[in-house]
Specification:
251 residues, zinc ion binding, alpha+beta, nucleic acid binding, HIRAN domain-containing protein, 13 strands, hydrolase
């Protein structure tokens, strides 16, 4: 895929309902950082989040503004492990990162998760021509069979998906299953709309276990990566312009 800005999505979780929403986007390009709120669309975006209790970050109070900085914004930089830690190199190694990694690389790998709030950074869906890639941590892990089989999972193991249109929480829910059929959880809702359409249209894709972190918090234990191709029967722009305005990064 072609060179593009390094983008991460900012996710907020409603701690009462456990639902997650894509509320903002952080970009790094040509040495500059920008942050803006995700105002396009409704499903799992800023507007639905605000209808369900979200209030803008105190450091970024104006939802109509694009914030810029020559360094990573302080509220986000504080989410990174301290480089002065004596075990910092071991931390990078555990994350699968090299010493040449950037702050955005670390933010992507850790999610920037803090115990004091319910924000998290995730990778976007990338689409170039008819090819797409995305990766995600399995959602709903604590409620299903993941912990019972995590010791049996291996990097590059194939995983299976199934549609769950009768799900009371999300009519475009997609179940994640191990190659042996154990239910691990779901594709996060801010991605599921895209994958629901991809599967409905019988597009080609491959999904595998990308990373396993047995000691991590429940929703950061297993990362899945997907590569796929949108077939000739799908009009990508029509999918993106549906009534829920699915958002991906077009290259």
């Amino acid at each position: 895929m072609s060179k593009r800005p390094f983008e991460l999505w900012l996710i907020w979780q409603n701690v009462e309902t456990r639902q997650r929403y894509h509320v903002g986007r952080l970009l790094h390009e040509d040495g500059a950082y920008t942050f803006s709120y995700e105002k396009e669309g409704y499903r799992r975006k800023l507007k639905e989040a605000m209808d369900n209790g979200y209030r803008p970050h105190l450091a970024f109070p104006d939802t109509n503004k694009t914030y810029t900085s020559n360094t990573l914004f302080g509220p986000f930089a504080r989410r990174l492990p301290d480089r002065r830690r004596p075990d910092y190199l071991s931390v990078l190694q555990d994350l699968g990162l090299s010493t040449e990694c950037t702050e955005m690389d670390v933010l992507r790998a850790t999610g920037g998760i803090l115990a004091t709030d319910s924000y998290e950074f995730v990778s976007p869906i990338i689409v170039e021509h008819n090819n797409f890639v995305l990766d995600f941590f399995v959602a709903g892990w604590r409620y299903y069979q993941g912990d019972q089989v995590i010791d049996q999972l291996q990097i590059d193991d194939r995983v299976e998906f199934s549609l769950d249109p009768e799900n009371p929480h999300d009519h475009k829910a997609v179940v994640v299953m191990s190659v042996n059929g154990e239910k691990l959880g779901f594709i996060p809702a801010f991605y599921s709309g895209w994958m629901f359409e991809i599967m409905e249209q019988n597009c080609s894709y491959q999904a595998k276990v990308e990373a396993i972190h047995p000691q991590a918090v429940a929703h950061r234990k297993v990362c899945i990566s997907i590569t796929g191709e949108v077939n000739q029967f799908v009009n990508i722009q029509k999918v993106l312009d549906d009534k829920e305005e699915l958002r991906v990064v077009m290259c």
